Amino acid sequence: MQQNYAQWQQWMIAAQAGDADAYRKLLKDITPLLRNFIRKRLFDAERVEDVVQETLMGLHKMRHTYNPSQPFETWMFAITRYKVIDAIRQIKRQQARESYVADDDEYSFYETIADTKTNIGTADIRQDLIKALTTLPKKQRTIVTMLKVEGLSAAEVALKMDMSVSAVKVAAHRAYKKLRGELEGHGE
Amino acid sequence: MTKKTADMIDLLAGDLTPVQPRMALWKTFLPIFAFMLFMMAGWVLLENLRPWTATTMDEIQFYLILLLATVGLAGVGTVLLSTPDTRYMRPAFALLALAVLGWLAVSCECLLNTTWGHLLETAHHLVYDGSCWATIMAASAVLAVPLYLFLKRLAPLNPNMVAVGTILTSTAAASTGRLLICPTSEPAHLLLAHFLPILLMVILSLPILPRLLRW
C-alpha cells in the first residue's frame, strides 16, 4: 500500500501548530498502518489494540519531539517500535508473575459484591464499599473512581493520569483484587 | 478501526495544544556540551591545575584524549538514542559501544602498567583518602541532573541504554576534570580512583535511572 508520507508530514506540522482537524485526519490515517506494524511484531493478538492506543498516546505525548524538517514516518515508527518493545516486556513480566485477564477480575469483583448483597442490605454494601475503597492507595482509588464512578475508559484515565493504558489496567486489576479481598472479609 | 480507538483519536484531537517543535540536533547538543565544558573549566579553575610540564602532559594526554572521546561519543549516542527517528538507532548504539571501548582502553592501559600488589596497596590507601573517587562521583551526579532533564524533554527510546549513556557521559566528564587537577599519574591510582568510579556510577544508576527515563 502506497503511504502518503508527504501529506502526513504536512498534517503533523499543522498539528504541532494546534490544528485539531489535521491531527484527527493524521491519526485516523496512520492507525491501520500502525496496527499492521504492531500485529506483525506482537504475538499476543488480544493486546494489539491496546498497543495501538498506547502508541497513539505516545505520539500525542511526544509530538514536540518531531522535527518538521525530518521525515514523519521515521519518527512515527521509532515511537511505535518503542511501544511494541515496551508491550513485549510487559507481557513477559505479566506472564512470569500472574495471569491477567482484566474482564475476569472485574467480573469476579462484581460477583463478590453480588454475593455480599444477598447477605446484607444495600446501605451496608455502600458503606463497606466506601470503607474498602479507603484502604486502597490514592492512585488506585482515583483510577477505580474514574473507571467505575465517572465511567471513563481506560484510555481516558491513562491520558488524565499520564500513564499507559496497560498500566491503568494493571493498577485497576490490583485494586479490584484488593477490594474483593476486603469485601469478602466483610461478607464472612 | 475499533470504537475505542476512534474515541481515543477524538479525545487526543480534543486535547491538542500547540507545541514548539524540536530543534535541529546540533542545536540540542551544543548547550549540553557547553554546560559540561563550563562546569569542568570552573572546577579546574577553582582547584589547582596539576603540574603542567611536558612530562606530565605526555603521561596523561592519552587518558585525556580517550576520556574526552568517551564523553563526546557517549553524549552524542545518548542524545541520538533519545531522539525518535529509526535512522538514528544503529549509529547511536555504535557510538555508545565506542564510548564503552574508550573507557575500557584507558582502564586496560592502566591495568597493564601496574601490578596486583600495587593495586592492592592503592586500594588500601583509597579507603583513607577517597578525595578523587568521591569528587568524581559527586561531580558526575551534578552533571547528570541537567543531562537527565534535557533527555527527559526528548523521548528516550531505550531507557536502559540511555541511562548507561547519561552516566557514562557525566562520569567520564567528571573524571576528565579530576584528571586535570589530581597530581598523581600512577596507573593504579588512575584505574581505581578515576576510571573505576565510571563503572560504579553506571551500575549504581541502573536500578533507578531507567525507571525515571521511561515515558
Number of domains of chain B: 1
Count of discrete domains of chain A: 2
CATH class of the largest domain in chain A: Mainly Alpha
Biggest beta sheet attributes of chain B: none
The residue fraction in helices of chain B comes out at: over 70%
Please identify, by name, the CATH architecture of the largest domain in chain A: Orthogonal Bundle
Over all CA atoms, what is the radius of gyration of chain B?
20 Å
Number of helices of chain B: 9
Overall pLDDT level of chain B: 87
Task: Give the largest chain-chain interface (CB within 8 Å).
Answer: A-B, 42 and 35 residues
Q: Strand content of the residues of chain B, in percent?
A: under 5%
Explain how this protein is built.
The complex is a heterodimer of chains A (188) and B (215). Chain A has helices spanning 5-16, 20-41, 48-61, 72-97, 102-119, 122-134, 138-149, 154-161, 165-187. Chain A is mostly helical and 188 residues long. Chain A has two domains: 5-97, Rna Polymerase Sigma Factor, Chain: A, CATH 1.10.1740.10; 102-187, Butyryl-CoA Dehydrogenase, subunit A, domain 3, CATH 1.20.140.160. The longest helix of chain A has 26 residues, at 72-97. The radius of gyration of chain A is 20 Å and the shape is elongated. Chain B has 215 residues and is mainly α. Chain B has one domain (54-213). Chain B is elongated and about 70 Å long. Chain B starts with a helix and ends with a helix. Classes of the chains: A mainly alpha (188), B mainly alpha (215). Chains A and B meet through helix 1, helix 2, helix 3, helix 4 and helix 8 of A and helix 1 of B.
